Amino acid sequence: MNFFVANVQTGFGPFIAVYLASNKWTQGQIGLVLSVGTITAMVSQIPAGALIDTMRNKHAAAASAIGAIIFCALLLGASPSYLPVLSAELFHGFASCMLGPAMAAITLALVGRHELGTRLGRNARWASIGSAVAAALMGLSGQYVSVSSVFWLTAALAVPSLVALSMIERAAPLVPSKPITLRGPAPPGQRADLLELLRDRRLLVFAGCIVLFHLSNAAMLNLAAGEVTGHMGDNVQLVIAACIIVPQAVVAWLSPWVGSSAERRGRRPILLFGFVALPLRALLFAGVSSPYLLVPIQLLDGLSAAVFGVMLPLIAADVAGGKGRYNLCLGFFGLAAGLGATLSTTAAGFAADRFGNTVAFIGLAVCGALAVLLVWVALPETRENAPPDASPAQNPTSPASPSPSSTSPISSTPPTSSAQPNSPPANPTPVSAPPV
């Protein structure tokens, strides 16, 4: 399912910027209309997450979202005029905010909390392979058929994702009767609401990191693709496809290592490893004049995408803990991502129109550097110290004051960084997911 859903989502990436640019849209107009989709997703994230937390049938939510994405692809392929493009972005923004949390909830129910990092790494591997395959097919289609054929192909590739979804076993409920956490289940009727989650410092600091990450990252390839390839003529679609395939190959290779390393060594060192690629990539784009140099620079995008794609749902599970609000937490992080992406595409597009690409890319590099600084200075470690089979005696009874023995000897972060001062006291006994 991850493979085929990635096929579908690839059509809504840089291909839209090239499609609109080929139809005489300016960078500012492209940035504005792309922001519509992210704004829609932004305002829908938290309600969608809360809704999915209460739903037992995650299949229906995922299937509905995929159906809406098919409709959006058909709408884009039908006409590059303002109203169809705007409508497609609106529907796609809403559908995406349902699809991601639904798939994350299915993943958590299938493998349980202690295997989540490893499973998320495997999810990301198959998604990146799917994106690479789709990008190759769409690049060839756009090059040798027509630019609009990319979106007809996107709709066709959505059908296997529905088939894969239907094959996921539903003999047992996908959502356990009690939340899966390291700290034990939340008492019935006492799930945390958004206000309680907002008291957790980890939630707020990581949300700030997400805003800065997307503020730096979201507009980067779209801006480079629209400007550098604008006067290229031949092979534009193939270059864009290569810019997607190369980082996806990196993600496919790196994601399982990211997931397993995050479980062994903690979240912060892995986040720093991925975030530092952002400002470097923006500065390299600022000095690029040849479209063929976009491809090797996109190797850095694969590094940051592998880290961010695995760490966001993993940290959401850490922060949600026993509160029973995993998808609400994902929705809040999605809101932060939408805010950063909206500001990125709009501001970078207009900055490029007014001051030129170099200034726009320098601004994106500054945002990436601020994201690295925030992770380094303010983000506490969220990983639980006890291994999955630890006895209660080995687990710290006070998360604010961990004992030396509770800190993993292979962790690359200091013991004080793993403190969770805002976490509520809870049962330290691990709870595993029932088999599905």
Keywords:
mainly alpha, 0% strand, disordered C terminus, single chain, 16 helices, 436 residues
Quick overview:
The chain is an all-alpha fold and 436 residues long. 69% of the residues lie in helices and 0% in strands.
**Overall spatial form:** globular
How much helicity do the residues have? 55-70%
Please tell me the overall pLDDT: 76
Distance between the termini: 17 Å
N-to-C series of helices and strands: HHHHHHHHHHHHHHHH
Radius of gyration: 21 Å
- Can you count the helices? 16
Tell me the structural class: mainly alpha
Q: Runs with pLDDT <50, length 5+?
A: 171-190, 386-436
Number of strands: 0
Largest sheet: none
Strand content: under 5%
Describe this structure in words.
The protein is an all-alpha fold and 436 residues long. The chain has helices at 2-10, 14-21, 27-54, 58-78, 82-111, 116-144, 149-166, 194-197, 201-217, 220-228, 236-265, 267-275, 277-286, 294-320, 326-355, 357-377. Helix 5 (82-111) packs antiparallel against helix 15 (326-355) and helix 12 packs antiparallel against helix 14. It is globular and about 55 Å long. It starts with a helix and ends in a 59-residue tail after the last helix. Residues 171-190 and 386-436 have low confidence and may be disordered.
Helix/strand layout:
Elements: H1 2-10, H2 14-21, H3 27-54, H4 58-78, H5 82-111, H6 116-144, H7 149-166, H8 194-197, H9 201-217, H10 220-228, H11 236-265, H12 267-275, H13 277-286, H14 294-320, H15 326-355, H16 357-377
Helix pairs in contact: 1-6, 1-7, 2-10, 3-5, 3-15, 4-5, 4-7, 5-15, 6-7, 6-11, 6-14, 9-15, 9-16, 11-12, 11-14, 12-14, 12-16, 13-14, 13-16, 14-15, 15-16
